[in-house]
Specification:
The structure holds 3 protein chains of 3 kinds.
Chain A lengths: L8 E6 L11 H9 L4 E7 L5 H14 L3 E6 L2 H14 L7 E5 L1 H5 L5 H21 L6 E4 L3 E5 L3 H12 L3 E5 L14 E2 L4 E2 H14 L3 E4 L2 E9 L2 E8 L14 H5 L3 E3 L8 E3 L1 E2 L11 E2 L9 H5 L12 E7 L1 E4 L3 E3 L16 E3 H8 L20 E8 L14 H15 L4 E6 L9 H10 L4 E4 L2 E6 L5 E7 L4 E7 L1 E6 L1 E3 L3 H6 L27 E3 L9 H19 L3 E4 L4 E3 L9 H5 L5 E4 L2 E4 L9 H5 L5 E3 L4 H11 L5
Parallel strand pairs in A: 1-2, 1-3, 3-4, 6-7, 6-18, 7-10, 18-29, 20-27, 21-22, 21-27, 22-23
Antiparallel strand pairs in A: 5-30, 8-9, 11-12, 12-17, 13-14, 15-16, 19-28, 24-25, 25-26, 31-34, 32-33
Helix pairs in contact in A: 1-5, 2-3, 5-17, 6-7, 6-14, 10-11, 11-12
Chain B lengths: L6 E6 L3 H10 L8 E6 L7 H9 L4 E6 L11 H18 L7 E5 L5 H18 L5
Parallel strand pairs in B: 1-2, 1-3, 3-4
Chain C lengths: L4 E7 L5 H7 L3 H9 E6 L7 H6 L3 E7 L2 E3 H13 E7 L1 H5 L11 H11 L19 E6 L1 H4 L4 E3 L6 H15 L8 E2 L2 E4 L46 E2 L4 H4 L17 H12 L5 H13 L5 H5 L8 H10 L4
Parallel strand pairs in C: 1-2, 1-3, 3-5, 5-7, 7-8
Antiparallel strand pairs in C: 4-6, 9-10
Helix pairs in contact in C: 2-8
The chains are: A alpha/beta, B alpha/beta, C alpha/beta.
């Protein structure tokens, strides 16, 4: 009991028409329940949820000075809220009330009147015991910072950023490369419509750049995050660009005089760039950048820059941002092709991966859209695509990377468009083309463009004496071995996530066994991470194409708006709390809380009231009962058990 | 309840408890000597509470939770319940108390048929074992 | 010259360790002997039960060991009658201790085990001399607290230096006229975790990587035992031993018993350990893998109730089931 005075509990028993009263002897129940010590008022009525019934409860609370209420009727999932409001309207705290089902759990599932009555009485015994230990609580309110951090500036991050910024939420994008745009900026055309990727993407990038509510950090990474939902403090490490974007006029003089040439990562190694460069013409920020690792500090670029935009002494900087929510949109990388040793990636120049092929297809790419052999620049007449390179393989990636069937078909189609007299082969295990128009696309590629689809795996790719590649595989439909001499082999390498596990850990974000972010529930909460206030979209969550990425990003934005749309976050107060006198700092509760809501402060456990979800696992694991779930303490559970079994032994 | 055995069923609110609701809505019938105690999560159920049930005359204790690995509304409460029940059953055996008197099952919110079947089965088993305390 | 106070030390089911711990008090014992006459102590001073029965006005009666037989019961009651202060000394007296573990067996079973292992040259195997009147085994081995209300409880197996110091101080104070208000329970109401030397300063999580026995891992001296997969009863055990075992690279086995707020420490530890085990790999191991690891606890009673079995709630149930009374 939480007060010195004796409890005044009221029990209200519903007949629910004949639903309960038809099986349970209400009179007997009233009689038995009236005998419970602490119960000062018992009332039954035909429909307790009706206006009349509700008034009965409210009046009784006031007139009888009840300090706790039990309603025995239907299941809480139906009417918990109904009666909670009644209780509140009568001036009693809603948490001093319990609703138990003597309908779904009793009258509707038992036939024998005596047995059902016996059980109904016991269910009410239990509820009275529990409510006796209930305390009054107010909902937990916390203010929120109406800003959102988005980690990753690819199409996922950009989409979410625009949705949020247009809704009035301030957005901070942190992107680790020198430009936003992500992998989509490398693509030539996108399936199944064959839209030009840049044409869809660059307007969005430009919108992001000029949006008043969006702040972009490039060459930046999140290094630390503290706080909790609605109130995160983020530390961002800015690597030096060494070129001032506000001064850079994109004239390119610096690039011309730079003596250093290295492989261009934006062309995936198929071309070179200087140590001062712009990733691609439409890069955002629209500015050159110095490649700090390869720059020799010769200073020629500084001399020729007409606006003095280059400062080779710029240092890295750590900035802090306060945000209310975080979206993880870190995207992917391709599985390292070198690990598929039988395919010769990294060994033979003419074995490339799908992103490299995209660059080749791109009109602004290293070969201006010509499909040529990287080894000698000769045109490609025979091309082989190997699907599932690394995916669906117990030795590499167990999962399916989802998009490879579609983009390989696209690659094959585009090849045949440009090299009509060429031959294209696709080695596949299955064709996964589940999206809108996808199956039809594949059919077109196979039939109209006459791409040879071979159902079977490739065992080896090796180089013949004439320099061509020999692709050795099997056609399972005909049962025969098959060998193709190819000019170019393209591996559809699997997608792997790139979120640093250390950062994930700082964000209290669980990763699955492959490193993808684990959502709370694939159907109930598909874009939320267990840690409140953290969300995920795009391939950081699982392999998917651009269409699905954009959809998921908008979903994430909607969830963030749900969180940040109000001035306060309001939460249920039935959380865990620590009795510091009893706590010995053993750390067991902090170790098992699934939400990371418990931390150790000066040797004692402390519950973060904004992260606790009220599951009670902590109380059940505490060896000395020092952490308790409000209104379901161990004492209450034991009392409920004793009450339900009263008189049995 | 006369000489019949009594069983306490700790059911989690989100899965097994919801299945019990559905069983009611569907008017499925099962023995009335099973008394439900609804908890937010099976992870809240302590060995202490289970033993308290036995001490007070329960002949059997049933714990109904969400399916592993991913159904638990609170992520992993069901795993905690499983481990605790498993270890408690070992302890019961050592004391010469039939460990079959304690059972844990995973029942999702729609598996009302399974709940009924499992409870009927459990009641039969407990009747076979007889009353725990003489 | 003031006459000395009287102290009597009597036995229930003992091992001798508590006697050693008293002797181990060293100089403090000398101080006590300045103020007290030990009028009865079977290991040190000759005397049979008749001697004890004849003594009156014992100031401090120390009971060691569990109450296992009717003879122990008789002695315990005698002691309470005759003593102003009764000390339940050692975990056997406070909780039942190691002899308490025999409570799992019916007295008839224990008797038959004993009978079947007696060898004798002058009688048939398995029979007992009729001239002897052996005390009866009680239904279980009771801690002293079951039988009477001691004034001072000194847990430990045996009570540690610190506890003995505490007791010695009380005895000396008593000899100068001080009187205790209410029961004294030596040790503190905090658990070993609260000031464990192995608890890291800044790490707030324990990952329990499995269940290992002490010979199966190279035990690191600076790391929490639970973090190394070794069962340690520290989270529920009463402070008072100065972490003797823990500081010597051995996990706590709970000989001091639980803090008073816990009514069944074994059940609490079952919950804590089960919850903690492989908490980071539950989805990976699933029930099968988790069960396999839990199977490594082959003797849960020894792990969780080594000293406190007679106080366990499950024993109450087992006894009722057995058909015996309390």
């Amino acid at each position: 009991m939480d007060t010195e005075k004796s409890p005044r509990i009221g029990v209200f028993i519903c007949h629910c028409g004949r639903n309960i009263a038809g099986t349970v002897d209400i009179e007997k129940v009233v009689e038995e329940v009236s005998k419970i010590p602490g119960v000062v008022y018992v009332k039954d009525y035909v429909y307790m949820c009706s206006d009349v019934g509700q008034k009965l409860i409210a009046d009784a609370i006031r007139e009888q000075g009840l300090d706790a209420v039990v309603v025995a009727a239907c299941t809480p999932s139906l009417h918990y809220e109904t009666f909670a409001r009644v209780v509140e309207s009568a001036g009693l705290n809603r948490y001093k009330y319990e609703l138990v089902s003597i309908r779904e759990h009793c009258s509707w599932v038992h036939l024998n009147r005596e047995e059902a009555t016996w059980k109904a009485v016991r269910i009410i015994y239990g509820a009275v015991a529990k409510v006796s230990g209930n305390k009054a609580y107010d909902p937990i309110k916390a203010s929120v910072v109406r800003r959102c951090l988005i980690i990753g500036g690819g199409i996922a991050g950009i989409t979410a950023a625009l949705d949020l910024a247009n809704a009035g939420v301030e957005v901070v994008i942190v992107e680790k490369s020198p430009t936003i745009g992500g992998k989509m900026a490398l693509l030539s055309e996108t399936f199944p419509t064959l839209d030009c990727a840049q044409c869809i993407l660059t307007p969005k990038m430009a919108e992001v750049a000029r949006h008043p509510h969006i702040k972009i950090y490039t060459l930046a990474e999140v290094v630390d995050i503290e706080g909790y939902v609605g109130n995160f403090k983020v530390k961002i490490l800015k690597h030096p660009r060494k070129v001032d974007p506000s001064l850079c006029r994109l004239c390119g003089f610096c690039e011309r005089v730079c003596p250093v040439e290295v492989l261009n990562e934006f062309d995936r190694g198929l071309s070179t760039r200087k140590a001062v460069y712009i990733p691609f013409p439409q890069a955002i920020p629209a500015s050159y950048v110095v490649d700090v690792e390869n720059c020799t500090r010769c200073g020629r670029c500084v001399k020729v820059c007409p606006t003095n935009a280059i400062n080779l002494d710029e240092r890295e900087e750590v900035v802090e941002e306060d945000v209310g929510a975080v979206i993880i949109a870190t995207g992917y990388e391709l599985y390292p092709g070198e690990k598929l040793r039988e395919y010769g990636y990294g060994l033979y120049k003419d074995v490339i991966d799908s992103l490299q092929f995209e660059r080749m297809l791109s009109a602004s790419g290293p070969t201006r859209g010509e499909i040529v052999r990287p080894s000698n620049g000769e045109p490609v007449k025979t091309i082989v695509f190997i699907q599932c390179a690394g995916s669906r393989d117990d030795n590499h990636l167990k999962y399916c990377s989802k998009i490879c069937c579609m983009y390989t078909a696209k690659h094959a189609m585009l090849f045949k468009e440009r090299v009509p007299d060429g031959e294209a082969y696709v080695f596949y295990i299955d064709i996964r083309a589940a999206g809108k128009g996808y199956e039809e696309f594949i059919k077109r590629v196979q039939e109209e463009f006459m791409v040879n689809y071979i159902r079977g795996r490739v065992s080896r790719v090796y180089q013949d004496v004439d320099g061509k590649l020999v692709v050795s595989g099997v056609d399972t439909l005909s049962g025969k071995k098959i060998t193709v001499k190819a000019d170019l082999v393209v591996l559809a390498l699997g997608m792997v996530p790139v979120l640093d596990p250390k950062l994930a850990s700082k964000l209290n974000t669980p990763l699955d066994e492959y490193g993808f972010v684990q959502e709370v529930h694939p159907k109930l909460r598909p874009v939320e991470v267990a840690s409140s206030g953290i969300f995920v979209c795009g391939v950081a969550h699982s392999p998917k194409d651009i269409s699905e990425t954009v959809t998921q990003a908008s979903a994430t934005a909607a969830k963030v708006l749900e969180l940040l749309g109000k001035e306060y976050i309001v939460r249920e107060p039935l959380i865990a709390e620590v009795d510091e006198d009893r706590c010995n700092g053993c750390r067991i509760c902090a170790s098992i809380c699934p939400y990371g809501a418990i931390e150790m402060v000066e040797g004692k456990a402390r519950v973060n009231e904004l992260l606790c979800e009220g599951c009670g696992v902590c109380e059940a694991s505490c060896p000395v009962d020092a952490i308790r779930l409000r209104n379901y303490t161990e004492n209450q559970l034991l009392n409920t058990v004793r009450a339900v079994l009263r008189g049995v032994v | 309840m006369g000489g019949k055995s009594v069983i306490i069923a700790f059911l989690c609110r989100w899965c097994a408890g919801a299945a019990a609701d559905l069983a009611g809505v569907s008017r499925l019938h099962y023995p009335a000597n099973v008394i439900p105690v609804i908890v937010p999560c099976t992870g809240r159920v302590t060995p202490r509470a289970i033993v308290e049930a036995f001490l007070n005359g329960a002949d059997g204790v049933f714990v109904g939770g969400c399916h592993t690995p991913s159904d638990c509304h609170y992520m992993s409460g069901n795993f905690k319940a499983f481990k605790r029940v498993y270890l408690l059953k070992k302890l019961l055996k050592q004391y010469g108390i039939e460990s079959e008197r304690l059972r844990i099952e995973w029942i999702s919110a729609t598996e009302s048929q399974k709940l009924v079947r499992v409870l009927e089965d459990f009641v039969k088993e407990i009747e076979g074992l007889g009353k725990l305390l003489r | 010259m003031l006459s000395k106070l009287k102290m009597a030390i009597v036995y229930g089911a003992i091992c001798g360790g508590c006697d050693v711990s008293i002797v181990n008090m060293g100089e403090k014992l000398a101080d006590i002997l300045d103020k007290y006459d030990i009028v009865y102590w079977s290991v040190a001073v000759d005397g049979k039960l008749d001697l004890l029965k004849s003594i009156e006005g014992i100031d401090v009666g120390v009971f060691m060991g569990g109450v296992r037989t009717s003879a122990h019961l008789e002695i315990a009651k005698l002691l309470r009658e005759k003593s102003r202060l009764v000390v339940a000394y050692g975990s056997c007296a406070v909780y039942g201790g190691i002899p308490g573990l025999a409570s799992l067996y019916k007295p008839e079973e224990i008797a038959s085990i004993v009978k079947s292992t007696i060898s004798t040259v002058s009688r048939e195997e398995g029979s007992l001399p009729k001239e002897l009147e052996l005390p009866k085994l009680l239904d279980i081995c009771h801690p002293l607290v079951d039988v009477l209300d001691p004034d001072i409880l000194a847990p430990g197996c045996p009570p540690s230096d610190k506890i003995c110091d505490g007791l010695a101080d009380i005895l000396l104070k008593y000899s100068s006229g001080w009187r205790p208000e209410g029961k004294i329970f030596l040790g503190e109401e905090n658990t070993l975790c609260s000031n464990c030397p192995r608890k890291p300063e800044d790490l707030s999580k324990i990952i329990m990587p499995g269940i290992y026995r002490i010979h199966e891992v190279k035990i690191r001296e600076d790391k929490c035992f639970l973090e190394q997969g070794i069962l340690c009863m520290g989270p529920v055990t009463r402070i008072g031993c100065d972490h003797q075992c823990i500081r010597n690279n051995m996990p706590c086995i709970g000989c001091m018993g639980p803090v008073s707020s816990v009514d069944d420490s074994g059940l609490e530890m079952v919950s804590s350990i089960a919850s903690l085990l492989h908490v980071d790999r539950e989805r990976e191991l699933l029930e099968k893998g988790l069960a396999k690891e839990l199977d490594k606890i082959v003797d849960p009673i020894a792990s969780f109730y080594r000293y406190t079995l007679p106080r366990s709630l499950l024993l109450k149930i087992a006894l009722k089931k057995r058909g015996g009374g309390e």
